[in-house]
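Appendix B, Record 12. Input sequence as logged:
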Amino acid sequence: MRRRLDLAAALVARPPVLFLDEPTTGLDPRSRRGLWDTIEGRVSEGTTVLLTTQYLEEADRLAERIAVLDHGRVIAEGTSDELKDRVGGERLEVTLLNPADADRAIDALAPLGDGNRPVAEGARVRLAITRRAGVIAAAVRHLDEAGVDVEDLTVRRPTLDDVFLTLTGKRAEEPAAEEDDGGEPPR
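Logged structural output:
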């Protein structure tokens, strides 16, 4: 309730610049979405919002420009689309009924990719694609011809979570590893 009261007080004044430090922490999904709608409304009215968050879905929805921080340093910045393009475009993801079919699925899907060979992790096969149009139908056809049974098949764009993982090699919520350098904590 204290967090909600603080947010309400900050939003009532309609400031030209609004600093929000992880504003949705501890909110239930309905309240979170309501706050997102409120923030979007303020931005459309001309308020500049500076937002810090570890909820990357929140940054994707609300931010025009994003700075990715790791250990207190900016390691990348840009729009959501620019950051996603930086780690790769769209991907075809296939979940196989039988993980033992992964090699046949890789061979069947290889012609559909961007030149890189598909990668299998257990029952999931991923392939970077250059064009979205018709790729699902072609994938189903190729997999059927190869005798590979599929549980699920989708085309997806990288998320900001994917961007963070690629740029830092760790999840957003992992604490920084502390080095034992003789007593001083990391900065």
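The domain at 90-156 is CATH 3.30.70.100 (Alpha-Beta Plaits).
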